[in-house]
């Protein structure tokens, strides 16, 4: 029975993603430029930029690796969670505004910029 529930949830999530994609594909008429399609015409607000940076850093391999490491080595991995919670305000008030002013969409894009780029 558990397999049926898992497949149902998976199907709902995939259907929702497909529905959103089709909706936005047909909503806007005319051709889109690459800048409009991939970067939203460089008009990202603060929250989408923060979520994009989060998605750039997180990966399925990292999440699975973290849980495996936690299972193998125990509670000391809780320090990672604690430091993440403690550094969250720094990220919100320092890193995200800097990235927003630089008009980048991911951490990796900033890494390839010149070191003397104005902040």
How would you describe this protein?
The chain has 119 residues and is mostly helical. It folds into two domains: 1-30; 34-119, no CATH class. Helices cover 74% and strands 0% of the residues. It is flat, with a radius of gyration of 19 Å. The mean pLDDT is 78. Keywords: Cell membrane, Ion transport, Membrane, Sodium, Sodium transport, Transmembrane, Transmembrane helix, Transport. It is a multi-pass membrane protein. It is found in: Cell membrane. One of its GO terms (biological process) is sodium ion transport.
Main attributes?
119 residues, mainly alpha, single chain
Q: What distance separates the N and C termini? A: 55 Å
Q: Largest beta sheet, briefly? A: none
Shape, principal axes of CA atoms = flat
Estimate what percentage of residues fall within beta strands. under 5%
Give the uncertain stretches in residue-range form: none
The whole-angstrom Rg is 19 Å
Structural class: mainly alpha
Number of domains: 2
Name the helix and strand elements from N-terminus to C-terminus, one letter apiece: HHHHHH
Tally of helical runs: 6
How many beta-strand segments?
A: 0
Average pLDDT level: 78
Helical content class = over 70%
